[in-house]
Design brief:
Elements lengths: L1 H28 L12 H21 E2 L2 E2 L1 H23 L1
Antiparallel strand pairs: 1-2
């Protein structure tokens, strides 16, 4: 019982982090379509507070010129860590 609940929590947290990164990527594209995004809007600030700790360390190594690959790298790393945690949790119960 606890094992399946813990697996669900881990999966939901990692899905939430992945979704937050994808929303941030889409928000970064909107100014190119002449849609103004207020960086001080509370929801945008919360999104940045969630994704910055994940993206900032990766950004140092995955930015080439003006192209930032950190969201792609972060999504791949999040999936790898999620799979490892799920495997460890399944083997421990």
């Amino acid at each position: 019982m606890i094992g399946s609940t813990l697996l669900t929590v881990v999966n939901v947290l990692f899905q939430f982090a992945s979704l937050a990164i994808l929303v941030r990527v889409i928000l970064s594209w909107l100014p190119m379509a002449w849609v103004r995004i207020d960086p001080y809007h509370p929801l945008v600030r919360i999104l940045y507070q969630i994704t910055d700790p994940i993206l900032d360390p990766i950004r140092r190594f995955s930015t080439f010129g003006m192209i930032d690959f950190s969201p792609i790298v972060a999504l791949v790393l999040l999936d790898i860590v999620r799979r490892i945690l799920v495997a460890l949790l399944i083997n421990s119960f």
